[in-house]
Write a structure and sequence with these properties.
By secondary structure, this protein is mainly α. 71% of the residues lie in helices and 4% in strands. The chain is built from 11 helices and 2 strands; from the N terminus they run αααββαααααααα. The chain has helices spanning 4-20, 32-39, 43-56, 74-98, 103-115, 119-122, 124-140, 145-153, 158-166, 175-189, 193-218; strands at 59-62, 66-69. The protein has a two-stranded antiparallel sheet. The longest helix is centred in the last third of the chain and has 26 residues, at 193-218. The termini are far apart.
């Protein structure tokens, strides 16, 4: 039997994932009973997980209205994106330094790059999972658990799919973004610091473009 803490972590990751992939779009009211039923767990860890998401800023609690998925402002999203870019660029040197010591991480990243070739058919949830896993593995190579913790708490990768689903953009619009992962991985494996930084910046540019579209769509 899982501990209450592990059930809370499970609920937290699952709810966050559903927000990230658009299953719970901005403004969605979070019904704790429905969520607990769908996860097959009691309401207590779900409530605890939602409180963590409130602290993270992904969920809002309103008196007499309950909890809903936050409609993040363009400024809030830009801050999150900038923090993600800062972390990924900071990790360039450390990841290159450690790449030879983690062949299994590189092997998994290679598998993810191959999976991106069929990401369009898989849809938003599957593509979001691939994106999240790839970048989490990259950050793990820096070997700094505090950076890893901050990267996760910043909801760094989820921002992109929050934007995609919020603007109802077809996944095909971001086919170019998927191809960037191969460039990032090749630069990492060849230990080319300049190329890796350029590949990360190019990948991030797609997210900034999507943020501009989000701003024009919802905040004019």
């Amino acid at each position: 039997m899982k501990s209450s803490e592990s059930l809370q972590d499970f609920a937290y990751e699952e709810i966050k994932k559903r927000i990230q992939n658009g299953e719970y779009p901005p403004g969605t009211k979070l019904n704790t009973q429905e969520i607990s039923d769908s996860l097959g767990i009691s309401r207590s860890p779900v409530l605890a997980a939602i409180n963590r998401l409130i602290a993270l800023g992904l969920v809002e609690a309103t008196p007499r209205k309950g909890t809903t998925v936050a409609q993040l402002s363009p400024t809030q999203l830009r801050y999150i994106i900038e923090a993600r870019q800062m972390i990924e660029l900071f990790c360039v040197k450390l990841s290159i330094k450690n790449v030879d010591y983690h062949p299994l991480v590189i092997k998994e990243m290679e598998s993810i790059v191959q999976a991106f070739e069929t990401a369009l058919e898989a849809g938003y949830p599957a593509a979001a999972e691939l994106e999240t896993r790839f970048h989490t593995l990259y950050i793990s190579l820096c070997g700094n658990p505090q950076i890893m913790k901050f990267y996760d708490s910043n909801w760094s990768v989820g921002t992109m799919f929050y934007l995609y689903s919020s603007t109802n953009m077809p996944l095909s619009h971001h086919q170019t973004s998927f191809s960037h992962h191969k460039e990032i991985l090749n630069s990492l494996k060849s230990k080319d610091e300049v190329a890796l930084k350029a590949a990360i910046d190019t990948h991030m540019s797609i997210i900034y473009e999507t943020l501009e579209w989000y701003t024009q769509t919802f905040h004019q």
